[in-house]
Design a protein that fits this description.
With 378 residues, the protein is α/β, with parallel strands linked by helices. The chain contains 16 helices and 13 strands. Helices cover 36% and strands 13% of the residues.
Length: 378
Amino acid sequence: MKILYDSVMPYAEAFFGHIGICEPFELGKISSEALANADVLLTRSTTKVDASLLECGNNLKFVGTATAGINHFDTAALDDKNITWTSAAGCNARAVAEYVLAALLYLAEQDGFLLKNKQIAIVGVGAVGKQVADIATALGMQVVLYDPPRAAIDANFSSSIFEEVLQADIISLHAPLTHNGQYPTKHMFNSDVLNSMQSSQYIVSASRGELIDTQALLDMNDDCPQLVMDCWENEPYISTDLMSRCRLATAHIAGHSLEGKARGTSILYDKLCAFLGVEKQHSLAEFLPQMDHSHELTACTQSFAHQNLNQTSLSSLVKCFYDIENDDSFFRQHMAKSESITPIRKNYPIRREFDAVDISVDDAADKLTLSSLGFSVS
């Protein structure tokens, strides 16, 4: 069995080596001819799997993406060739939620407010939205959940109405991109919606850039809401004019933690083993390395044994794991000389998630809060 996999999938050779012959491919260098003798194709979101690519893939039985989204899959073309396809839904949910937390703490620090006094609306309550909601709840924020499609199929979930979303102080976007149906998400934040908002409100774009109409934002001049943009319309060639209006701007890297990427590999491994009826021989815990402890990180984690948790100390702790300002600064510097975000995404120095290091905490309430935020506490 021949398995082709994207070279940036962590630990792919280690996971899949016992199943078949594994061969990596580089971004942009996979061709239809390369699939001629392949049985399995494992990609990330940068590989568009369509009828053209599949033309020579007559032996393909299984195609998977080590990402949560499948917008790069032509599922009809895959179905036409009777190819089983799947994704790693939820693999980067924790990383995206931690990105949102870092952004919220940054905004709160810069603008001088307490998050516990703010209301946040979460648009799209899937794997990512659920974790963002859990974090917001742990911070004491008032949480509005908006996901009518989920409410239609989940009797245990109740969705707020869109008008309630637009009244929130902060709106965090985690919905998939859809074009049809009763609740299409393409440009759900169009000119009318955006003009109904206040410039004091915040929008965090961390799902699909097409949920927001870029031109509508640009037409608002200085009246648009405060923006945190990780996902952009027309990626990888984004609007640098819009970037200049953002409070924080990053290169669609919210989910790019080592754990998030490796979890994508691990999920596809589990699914391929199930598809083939092969017994699993590996688990993710075998491969994740221990996190290097910098002096700053050690000082941050040790300090929680001797101080009470508050928004200021939490912000300092989060920065030790992930300083979102660094990503913003690097992104702006790169985009001043480039039109594409691809090089940043390809060479992004993968960060670790909050639970990569144990934190010693004495206070029981602080321990519970930090645990709810995703930290590993003892």
